[in-house]
Amino acid sequence: MNESRIHTFASILNGVGILAIIYAIIIIILWFIKGGVWFKEMILPLHGLFFFILLALTFFVLIPLMVIKTTRPYSGLVLYQLTYLFGGIAWFYSAHYCLYFIGIGWLIVGFLFAGIGVVPIAIIGSAIKGHWELFGLVAFQLIATFGCRALAAYAVTTSET
Following DSSP, what letter does each residue of the chain receive, concatenated? Predict the structure, then answer.
């Protein structure tokens, strides 16, 4: 009975993940239609605020729910899905930085590495150019992404035993 609820909950979260992918595609299309200034002034501040709201939700709701054994798999699944949003927000910041500060050539190189190469290229580029604010922001987002993913995997695997 409990496993069927977990699978139902996971399928709902997968649907939410598909909606997040559709949102990302729409934002990318609007980014190229409306331009980088619109993206920097309208979307990036909202993504930054959204990131810190999700991080607060993680620390003050999801992690305390992981202490309770019956809610551990659910909070682990939600946290695992949130890591995709964390990574997506880091990717948007990195893509914007690559495109407007270090050049479209580096953005294309990042895309050649399955799209995720944009993030390390932005980190390296911001370190070389001395843009430490962006370096720290993207590095923090990556640490949050992979740290929360490891915590979520731990929560889900320990709840099954």
Answer: -HHHHHHHHHHHHHHHHHHHHHHHHHHHHHHHHH-HHHIIIIIHHHHHHHHHHHHHHIIIIIHHHTTSTTTHHHHHHHHHHHHHHHHHHHHHHHHHHIIIII-HHHHHHHHHTTTTTHHHHHHHHHHHHT-HHHHHHHHHHHHHHHHHHHHHHHHHHHH--
152, 83 contact by CB (below 8 A): yes
One pLDDT digit (tens) per residue for the chain, 161 residues: 466 666 676 676 667 677 777 877 887 787 778 777 777 777 778 878 888 888 898 899 888 988 888 888 888 888 888 888 888 888 888 888 888 888 888 888 888 887 788 999 999 999 998 889 889 988 999 999 999 999 998 988 887 65
The token pair at 32 is 């190229």
Residue 8, CB half-sphere, CA atoms under 13 Å: how many? 5
The full set of domain ranges for the chain reads 2-159
What amino acid occupies position 132? W
Phi, psi of 66 (to 5 degrees): -70, -15
Burial of 145 (0-12, 13-18, 19+ CB in 10 A): buried
